[in-house]
Amino acid sequence: MGIWCISEWMAGGKPKSLQLVELGPGRGTLTDDLLQVFKQFGHLLDPCDISVHLVEVSPKLSDIQAQKLTGKSIEMEPDKNSPVYKKGITRSGYPVSWYQDIQDVPNGKHNEFFDALPIHKLQKTNGGWREILIDIDPDFPEKLRFVIGSSASLVAKTFIQDDEIREHVEVCPSAAVIVQKLAHQINCYGGAGLIADYGHVGDKMDTFRGFCAHQLHDVLSAPGTADLTADVDFNFIKRMIGGIAAFLGPVTQQEFLRNMGIDIRLKALLEKSKDATVQQHLIRSYNVLMNPDQMGQRFLFFSIVPHSRLENTSKTTKPPIPGFSPLLMQ
């Protein structure tokens, strides 16, 4: 993905600045990996002005990210005149800033995180589409339960298509707002968006689930103690983008990484290392990423690019966007 960002920067005419923006950066591992790649290819990026922008609403996670990226804690900077609530310098020498909202982030390159955004669960009934709500169980006041709303759902009227054949649909209005903003920014100011997430193409129904200690967890049990997630509906994402910008995918993680040369990379690493333990670790890691039964087909990759990036592309050939077309071997 680091190579992908550099490739897109080069395809965009090597602008003098590159802004790497991540929403929901977790523990900061992905950003740290990308910056290590940027450092390795410094001769290509020089003298590009690189900056990192993280959208994180959790103070605790922002502390973990700061430790990971800068090697130290960073105090909050509550300034009503600035959208930045924390800033520092990464170990690789790049400025990094933290924001509460995507609206505050400068225009730039993005790696998005949608599966943690709030969703609306909609159920088709004899009386039309109704929203599934959460209520207190009257028989067990200490428990929560799902109930079906008694009136027509405004969310359904807004987002459900007339030709929808599923009886249960999950809709994420927040994702619609974010992806439209990104599409406008990217088409107007350049750059590229890369969305990598658990997802589907409008063919799944109930994907809302919880995880605690890497195990499935009842989403209504002990609120606040588990991670809640829902698969991204990439058909919905495409519909929300409309004609605002161009987009590619989704393709499976297996296809994206293969197009980016992961097989060649694995071969080089195996040849470089003579340690059997390291080689076994590399093969296991490769298998987790590529095996269809693990992350290979469960994760999907999707890209948003300016219309100008595809204007000269023949309709009979695959678009020349890294990861979405095969790696060309010389």
Automatic annotation (TrEMBL):
Residue span of region Disordered: 311-330
E.C. code: 2.1.1.320
Chief subcellular location: mitochondrion
GO cellular component, one term: mitochondrion
Gene3D superfamilies in the cross-refs: 3.40.50.12710
Reaction(s) this enzyme catalyzes, per UniProt: L-arginyl-[protein] + 2 S-adenosyl-L-methionine = N(omega),N(omega)'-dimethyl-L-arginyl-[protein] + 2 S-adenosyl-L-homocysteine + 2 H(+)
Localization per Swiss-Prot or TrEMBL: Mitochondrion
Role according to the record: Arginine methyltransferase involved in the assembly or stability of mitochondrial NADH:ubiquinone oxidoreductase complex (complex I).
Protein name: Protein arginine methyltransferase NDUFAF7
Taxonomic source organism: Hymenochirus boettgeri
